[in-house]
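Annotators were shown the component list below and the corresponding predicted structure, then asked to write short factual statements about the assembly.
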Amino acid sequence: MDAGLLAQFVANGLMLGMMYALVAVGFTLFFGVLDVIKFSHGDVLTVGAFTGYSTYLGLKLLGAADPWLQVAAVLVVACSAMALLGALIARYLVMPLKSAPALNILLATLMLGTVLRESVRLFYPDGANPKRFPRLLPTDAVALGDFNLRLDSVLLFLGGLAVIVAIHVLVNRSKLGLAIRAVAQDEETARTMGINFTLVVLFTFALGSAAAAFAGVMNGLYYNEINFGMGLWLGVIGFSAAIVGGLGNIYGAILGGFLFAALQTVGAVALPFASAYKDVFAFAVVIAIMAWRPTGLIAEKTSERV
Amino acid sequence: MSAAPRTPLWPGIAAAALVTAFAVAFMWAENEWEVIGVLAAAAVAVLVARRSGWLAPAARAFETREPAMNRVALAALLVFVAVFHGDHFPLLMVGTVLVYFTVCLGLTIQFGYAGVVNFAAAAFLGTGCYSAAVLAAHSAIPHLALIAIGGAVAALVGSILILPVLRTRGHYAAVVTIAFGLLFKTFLEVNDTLGGPQGLKLPSMRLLGMTFNDNFSVAGVEFSFYMHYVLAALALAVLAFAVTRRLERSWIGVSLDAIRLDETASACFGIHIARWKIVAFTLGNFMAGAAGALYALMLGFIAPTSFTFGDSLVMVSIVLLGGIGNPWGAALAAAIVVVLPEKLQVIQEYRFLLYATMVILVLLYRPEGLLPRPLRRYLPGWRPQ
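Structure shown to annotators:
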């Protein structure tokens, strides 16, 4: 294999890894504050991508043709709408079920994911078919031998990196982040210290959902296609990535995301059978990793109280 | 002895008769307005019965006179089938409901009793379907054996998941099965040997020289060929029901309940957690696979689109809507969930959305389901105070 092709695969893997990491960070944040898994996370991503697409169509209708303005508007609208949706889900579905058996929360969020997914399929105009997401970023390419490094990929990667760094700084350096970490560590003590528990939880869900919306738009811009089922896949893989890294640990989520993308890319390249099986391989890897390390590479720091 | 008078049987019989009459009326309804009318009448009837306290005696009859009521329910189903003996569509519906019911009994054992989550029920159903299709096309194995083989193959495929499912809990185990469900569907779509997206065709089922795909007549009455399959599916469902009930009532059922409620405590009492989880998981998958094999023979054609993640969620919804752990609830919910979209074509397209919404509402407002699982009765005649 020549170096150009290899570089292409590496670039591809990095983009995938960034998307997985963005989704995984959301899972990890939610698990941190409420000890629940929100399975509708992937479908929030889908809705985010479709919101971004609608924003683009709306802007085109209004005659705003500047691509930079379009990208900014798409991102802002998609992220803020999904932040709101995430907070609403937390307030009206997850928090009322907080003391219910874990299975009920799992089912409720799974079903909510189905509701979102089906709503996009049924109620978005022609939602059952894939949509062509526009290329809004400059596609100038730098040719390095056989390898074409496209500017939009670089920009997307840097954007994703900026979001992850921002979340990291927010959680670890700001006062709000301190509150999030306090709630994650011990809800009751945090309440006694005067932290507004509900507000912190809602903010965390908003933050994670906005990150998912960013990943959704990023996915659309990179592959130039969005469909109603994309969130389910990204959600399952993102969750597995969060687990591989260890739930409740942001570094773990990032590590897991990239590790997973690396495995998938290597699998697609190195395995003898046709690339049609690459998704089968990805899910087989999920199952295998869960069997091997059920609580992740960086193990969850909890002990069960009886 | 027998100081307390036995619970009267007639409220249960009356309830079964009413449900049968309703089901017949529902099937007879030709257009959508009639269907909606019948549904509204049923809803009003249930509400009135609940208000006036007529439901309680029927429920008690089902609870305390179980063997007799099982026979009554079976008789009611046979009456329904007899009414529609010559029509293909209602019989196909009954067969489908029975197949779904069998799968949901498996799910009931898995997460109603043992607490092992399984979001890949459609994949195990599909495993049974595809193994039956392949074996029916390429071998001379008797078709009755295909059903058992379908179950065995599903149990075998499920055993791949045993290790990850045992080592993980709750959410983690859910992801393992979700990943398997997605993997299964993708695999079917890209695998050309198994027909790819086009699926596979099956020959007619044959048993003791009878060809199941021919109409037949007994004493001058013409029967639809689906009658064969309905009776076969009924036999399978009755068998699965008996196994589920026996299992629940036995000490194995007690162990499974204990494991679901508190793993640590049950381990302290010497219950072998891994063993019983494996038993429950494998038995549930076997039921799904066996039902799948029969389903494939009944439909005569299978394709990957019938085994999506959405279908797995529908099966989970059935168990949850009916009331987790109550086989009667699963039967009722299976009938509603399978037949409603077929009769009410308007909602066919929206059914996943509808069921998902229904499950969310049930979880928020009535987590125990339509027919809640009654308390376990250790002594005959004992009633919770």
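Statements collected:
1. Chain A has a mean pLDDT of 83.
2. The longest strand of chain A covers residues 141-144.
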